[in-house]
Amino acid sequence: MDTIAGLFSFITTPVSWVIVQFHAVYGKIFGPDTGWAWGLSIVSLVILIRICLIPLFVKQIKATRAMQTLQPEMKKIQERYKNDKQRQSEEMMKLYKETGTNPLSSCLPILAQSPFFFALYHVLNAIATGSTIGVINDSLLASARKAHIFGAPLAAKFTDSQSTVEALGATLLDVRVVTAVMIVLMSASQFYTQRQLMTKNVDTTVKTPFMQQQKMLMYVFPVMFAVFGINFPVGVLVYWLTTNVWTMGQQMYVIRNNPTPGSKAQAAYLERLQKHVTLHGKTRRRSEKAIVKAIVAKGRDRNEFERKFINSLTKAGLVAQPDGLVMKGESTTVVESEDGTTTTAAAAPKRQQPKRQSKSQRQSGVTATGTPKPADESEPKTSLSKSDEPQDDKPSAAQQAPGSGNKPGAGTRSKAQSGQRKGPQRPKSPSKK
Q: Model-level pTM?
């Protein structure tokens, strides 16, 4: 143990110094020997570390977004090599290398916290064994050994014997109950954090090994915390419970305000954004403009939720601009070109059908509005105009010419085709008076 503590001495001294500085502040409020002073010092250490890790968290979010953009390519590789798992894995690793993405990027915050975790563990273990470490001298060591959190000493463990717990001024039942409750809360918060990531912030239309990995971590991490938690001091459990709660809140904020495209969280966010933009007629925050700008730039590559968002704005008389702004456009329409870009253009007026005239109006030469037609307006010719002309009963010259080869009644064949009786027609007899 001393060898391991020596390896982490470069981080143990800074961690102990930060705890002592926070203890000096909280000791003036709650008392130097209280569990509140030492417990809040550990909580403040966690908050300080997580604030310093925010740039790394932003990098993690960008890496996760990069993984999401590779989902279509991953799907193609899966379909192409669905019967060859080894070749499929090789192509996936090749794709990661070409695009510079890392599927293990979600573990970066945990890996970055590991040195601080081990340093805090050795500080609390030294307090439990009664040895000084870092900047913690004999007086601070005696004060830390007196500190209790809900009746459990700061350096007590779930696996400690009754004599060890009594030497720290507590009972074995209090230590077991407090440590068990903290282990359960720690595992539950870790499970909920991973679960909301898998159920709300993942594009479920594409299944990749990355999603399978996240699903596996959702069950592995809580079990790991439950197994190793019984060997952690109460102070370390306070550390991990605080960092899990911080991670859960940070994750909820990101899922609500910057969801993954194609996820359920994006559908809920775009629904809220559509109501907000429709109410105010524009985008207000910079994050809203960035989301709208990204959706407009996608063009035909928009997913179902993004198309629904654009259509809702159009129905409300609003137009999303390429710069992320939303403007009112009552007589405008969105025109989408072949390359996927959208532009606004004036809407064409609706074509009005002319009012149909009655038969009496057409015969009397009066328009549908009741005004007489102009003199130069000619009556439109219809297909019935020829049938109204009187037909000549005499055959044409070509039909009367001898030797023309026409048979009797050939001139009336066209009339017979129109429904009249074949053959020569008998002239009508004059009416008898």
A: 0.65
